Every structure is written in C-alpha cells, then in structure tokens.
Amino acid sequence: MTDAQETAADSSLRTTGGAPPDDGGSSEGAPIPLLEPQDGIPPVIADDASLAEVIAAFAAGSGPVAVDAERASGYRYGQRAYLVQMRREGAGTALIDPVACPDLSGFGEAISGVEWVLHAATQDLPCLREIGMVPTRIFDTELAGRLAGFPRVGLGAMVEGVLGYVLEKGHSAVDWSTRPLPEPWLRYAALDVELLVDLRDALEKELDRQGKLEWARQEFDAITSAPPPEPRKDPWRRTSGMHKVRRRRQMAVVRELWEARDRIARRRDVSPGKVLSDAAIVEAALGLPANVHALASLNGFGHRMGRRQLEQWQAAVDRAKALPDAQLPQPGQPVTGPPPPRAWADKDPAAAARLSAARAAVSALAEQLNMPQENLITPDTVRRLCWEPPAVADAGSVGVALAGYGARPWQVEQVTPVLVGALSVKGS
C-alpha cells in the first residue's frame, strides 16, 4: 500500500470504523469510502504566478502524472475544459482553472516525456489539446481495464474493484462552468486523481500477468499519435429522431433549424439542446408549419417560447421550404465503405457468409482472451475485410490488409489466423 493509500485509509477508518483492504485490494472486506484528498482540497490555480509555481512543482516531481478534466456538457457550447486536475508524486494535487489560465502549454514543456495517466483518454485529450496540453506518452486506465477483462471500467468501479476504495461520483454531471466552484465539487475533482497512479500501477501488473502489457502499450501509443479528428460532415444528420424524416424537403428543414440553433448556441455559449430540442426540430420538419401560429402548436414550440423566438424558427422553416429542388439535401450520406450488413445477403451472399464466419470467430477469440470484441478488432475493420478480401486470403495478405485499416501489430497477430479461416467460407 502506498503512503497515499495509507493516509486515505487512516482517514476513512476514522469515519467508517472499517479496516483497509490488504495491499490496496478489495477481494476481502468491504470497500472503504474515500472522503478527503490526502493533502486536503488545494486552492484553484487562477493566475499566472500561481500557475508558474505549480508548473515548477510538477517539473520537480517524480513518476507519472495523473490528469483529468471536467467539461460542462449539456450546459455550455462545445466540449472545452472548465477544470483540470493533476497529481504527481512530490508535487501533490493541482486544480487549475483553464478559463482564467487558458494557455497550459507550459505544463507540456515542464513534463515533456513523462507518462500521463488518464481514464478514458479519448474523452479528455481533445479539450486538453485546446489549452496546449499534449502528452507524448499515456496510460489509459479505462482501456487497460477493458484489455484486462474487467466487466465494469468506469473510474469508480475500477478504483473499488482494484484498490478497494469507493469514490463519490455525485458531481460528474454538474455545470463545471460555474464560478466559483463549490467546495464539494472541488473535493470530488481532487479525489478523481488521488489514486489514479495507484490504479495504473495495479493494472500494469495485471496486464503483465495476463501477457497483455505490450498490447496495451501499442493501444496507448496509437491514441497518443492519432491526429485530431476531422470535423464531422453534415452534423445535422445526427439529429436524434432523424430516422423519421424521409422527404428531402423535410431534411432541408432539419438542416436549416439545426444550423440556426447552432449559431445561436455558439453566440450564447450554451448547449444547443437548451436553445431548441432535437425532438422539436424533427416535429417542425415533419409538420412543415405554414406560419408562426402553426409552429406554436407543435411539441417543443409551446407557450414558454416568445413571439420573436417563434419567428426566427419559422424563418428557418420558410427558408427550407423556398429552396429549389436542386439545393435540397440528398437522402443518406455518401457511403465510403461497405454497405450495411443487412443488405449483404442480397448484394453478395459470399461476403455475407464470410462476415458471419468472421464475426463468430472474432467473438470466440475475444471470449478466450477475456476482452471486448471491439478492443480485439474493430467491427468496421472486419466488415471491410470481408467485403473486399485479398485476392489470396493467406496470413501475409490478410495481415497487410488489417494493418492498412489501422489494426495494431498485436491485433494483426491475434486475429489473422481466425480471419484467414473465415475468408475461406463459401456462400450458399
């Protein structure tokens, strides 16, 4: 047990009257609530002088750096960070306000080459990148848990299952853009990085025991080296309930309302759903209201909406209704890969047979390796390989194809034998 765990356990004992788990584990005895950070709740860093001090402290620290970020999803526009939590041996825990200190690139320079420990890294890295925090090495405790076969990989479940402590998770969905941040929220935020390095160390040992540590390292490297995602094409097509919208004119209404809502939400810095719900957008598209009065009768445009708001939404509807046919959106999106699997039996029965065999083989192998199928190999990769297999489906050509689709070397090594067998299956 580390000094941090012993201190936390002693604090918990005074509160709960329980006993700390042996060696930080939870296999025996009840898990212990982790109620207070080891060093108390640190002050929020919100000025350049304090930021310089904490950067110097982290540069002088040792070992990996635990990193977490809190966003205001559902409250604010976009996915920016509103609080960054960091912890390192010798430096303690730091809570940083990225609104007051929007450039944290100094951290990257101070801890260049140091491993960052995150939980569900792909969720936090985009907002960290926006404020200049870009790691060169990571350890993702959620992904490590998946590869190691843990059935529940949320941070709270992992800390409880691996280390034997219970994290209080009641503030995960609050509005982190609130200023000043309430003390209970700051306590929650500090506790999120309190045991993250301990969790990393335990998971590294477990992955090594299972022979999967190198696999995890390849996955972490792939996340670190991945380029920023391209902006989504036609994001309005992801409006919830879009499957009900069949006609092109109705699709144009969805597009106009979605884009109008997005402009307003961006200007007001609020979540688009707080401006107008997806359900209301779809209602207007299906109803094609002729005027403000008709619009007001639809769900989502009720009595709480003022005349001016109704007029701006009706104007968007009218713009869509006035478009010439040539400017209406086309149904669906351009297909860049194979067709939906449900259509394979009719389009290419042999490909359908290959896919069925490949799915079964991958499922059996994932169960044998005790990990989710999607972490063993992505379903999209399997579909693409089965739709357009190599001319000669031997281990070499299948491995090359998998690597071309982005599979890591460990994945190629594991799945190639079973996929070679699946590709030899003939359709009826």
How would you describe what is shown here?
- The chain is of the alpha/beta class and 428 residues long.
- The protein has three domains: 3-225, Ribonuclease H-like superfamily/Ribonuclease H (Nucleotidyltransferase, domain 5), CATH 3.30.420.10; 237-327, Orthogonal Bundle (DNA polymerase, domain 1), CATH 1.10.150.80; 341-423, HRDC domain (DNA polymerase, domain 1), CATH 1.10.150.80.
- Helix content is 51%, strand content 9%.
- The strands form two sheets. The protein has a six-stranded mixed β-sheet with strand order 2-5-4-3-6-7, sandwiched between helices. Strands 1-8 form a two-stranded parallel sheet.
- Helix 6 crosses helix 8 (196-210) and helix 10 (248-268) runs antiparallel to helix 12 (278-287).
- It is flat, with a radius of gyration of 26 Å.
- One of its GO terms (biological process) is nucleobase-containing compound metabolic process.
- InterPro entries: 3'-5'_exonuclease_dom, Exo_C, HRDC-like_sf, HRDC_dom, HRDC_dom_sf, RNase_D-like, RNaseH-like_sf, RNaseH_sf.
